[in-house]
Amino acid sequence: MSVPTIKHLRAFVVRGGGADYHDQGGGHWIDDHIATPMARYPEYRQSRQSFGINVLGTLVVELEASDGTTGFAVTTGGEPAAYIVEKHLARFVEGAKLTDIEKIWDQMYFATQYYGRKGLVVNALSGVDLALWDLLGKWRREPVHHLLGGAVRPELQFYATSSRPDLSKKLGFIGGKMPLHHGPAEGEEGLQKNIAELAEMRARVGSDFWLMFDCWMSLELNYAIKLAQRAHEHGLKWIEEALSPDDYWGYAELKKQAPRGMLVTTGEHEATRWGFRMLLEMDCCDIIQPDVGWCGGMTELIKISALADARGALVIPHGSSVYSYHFVITRHNSPFAEFLMMAPKADEVVPMFNPLLLDEPVPVQGRLGVGALDKPGFGVRLNPACTLHRPYTH
Ligand SMILES: C[C@H](O)[C@H](O)CC(=O)C(=O)O
Ligand SMILES: [Mg+2]
């Protein structure tokens, strides 16, 4: 069977929302005094944009095959990732058959290993990998979830991440994950405020609705244990990313000391099968949360998920919109998905990568039927109203 080759790869950057969902305008819940590792410096406490959380912007990787088929994907990484894609990774893609996904992944990873392995380089590599899966799906005229083995359930179910789980409940979600607002530098008073927010939200949503805290790497072990203990009486379902992603030992201890029934989750800033093997083998958490745009793409997520499955761990990918949905619907050990609320006041459902994609499906009453994913590739298009900038060529 003759398979087209990949003729062109192009990398673009775009600002304002998109895959860099922290790149929002003022007054957004996602940038309102959220605890971070930088919150120990009072001048960087009120806004994450003040320390540069949105400095990179979105990376768009576009591929064109010899038969004219095109594919694309978006992730974070912006201009430095565009440089890596154009100047380094393109050589492994152009000229290859569009079915050579595994080989291209291997070449991209090992060619960059001396300066890569995690972070920006793996974001860039993930963007290329996702664009390859999109291209393969477009060429075969099949959705990516078919290529992954097919849906194991007729619909996805979502929890929502926002400052307003009470509104998420009204919108039909199964739970609400709130950002933690006060870190250890704000002492006992901050801790009490965190617990008071949880207690107030519990009173608003009732006892059955899931509530979780996203700590975005901001805590140290003792604080995390204290927070978990005090949050337990308010029915906190899980404590997420409490510690630095490098502190595998801290996570292992937190998991040991967390109140019975409370889950420890982490992994959105972890990458590759080797990073997740460490989390799993050191018994760091109950749920791993790889971001398919950051962990090594779909090719790597398949491997990460298989490792987790063999150990009985759940995989609930971080954000990532359609790139997650096509995966989650195909895996028994991913029973639900995350939806990040991008409306500034978290009071309505807007597409997660708004405004960058057209046809981006969103949950209705907290659910999304597989039919919404039944389009070739990942089923989305770039919005021509968003200005793409190509900073490098090769
Ligand atoms: C709300 C969190 O601080 C972050 O912006 C998103 C995140 O970590 C998640 O969705 O998980
Ligand atoms: Mg998180």
From TrEMBL:
Annotated EC: 4.2.1.90
Annotated site location: Transition state stabilizer: 338
GO molecular-function term, one example from the UniProt record: magnesium ion binding
The Mandelate racemase/muconate lactonizing enzyme C-terminal domain, residue ranges: 155-261
Chain residues that bind Mg(2+): 214, 240, 268
Reactions listed under catalytic activity: L-rhamnonate = 2-dehydro-3-deoxy-L-rhamnonate + H2O
Active-site residues, Swiss-Prot/TrEMBL: 318 (proton acceptor)
SMART domains in the cross-refs: MR_MLE
PROSITE patterns cross-referenced by the UniProt entry: MR_MLE_1 (PS00908)
Cofactors that this protein relies on: Mg(2+)
SUPFAM superfamilies found in the cross-reference section: Enolase C-terminal domain-like (SSF51604), Enolase N-terminal domain-like (SSF54826)
Note: Reaction proceeds via a syn dehydration.
Protein name (record): L-rhamnonate dehydratase
Organism for this UniProt entry: Solimonas terrae
Gene for this chain: rhmD
